[in-house]
Amino acid sequence: MRYPQTTALLAERAGVTRQTLYRHWPHRAALLTDVTLQGPDLGYPEPGTDVRAVATAWLVSLRAGLTVPATRTAALAIAAEADHDPDSAQAMAGIMEDRLAQWLTTVDHTLGQS
How far apart are CA 108 and CA 112, in angstroms? Predict the structure, then answer.
């Protein structure tokens, strides 16, 4: 499934030229990664003493992030292309690394409080 977020459409919606987008993001996957990672700050859960409650809150926060249409669309577009586009595969890996680092930080603090 292809998503209609062509660079030309994204540039038009942003009110800039395609060249401006390419100046800041060398490829579409880089732009979509920033949309995914820089979406609205819905916040990660705070560490606590109950690991199960923190893990549940963490998963709820990830799901909440995907309820934002731009974030959901960008993440789905990257995932849909990751198996055949190296830039998208690298973008997906970067998103996963970011989320994993945040999760490990939260768990480390939670276990430190238990």
Answer: 6
Please give the distance of CA 43 from its chain centroid, rounded to a whole number: 13
Question: Hey, what are 78's tokens?
Answer: 């990257």
Q: What is the pLDDT along the chain (114 residues), one digit of tens a residue?
A: 344 467 788 788 889 998 998 899 888 888 888 877 776 666 677 777 788 888 888 888 888 878 888 788 888 888 888 899 888 898 889 888 888 888 888 878 777 765
Residue 67 buriedness (CB in 10 A; 0-12 / 13-18 / 19+)? exposed
* pTM for the predicted model, two decimal places: 0.65
**Residue of 96, 99, 94, 91 whose CA lies nearest to 42:** 99
Which amino acid, one-letter code, is at 100?
Answer: L
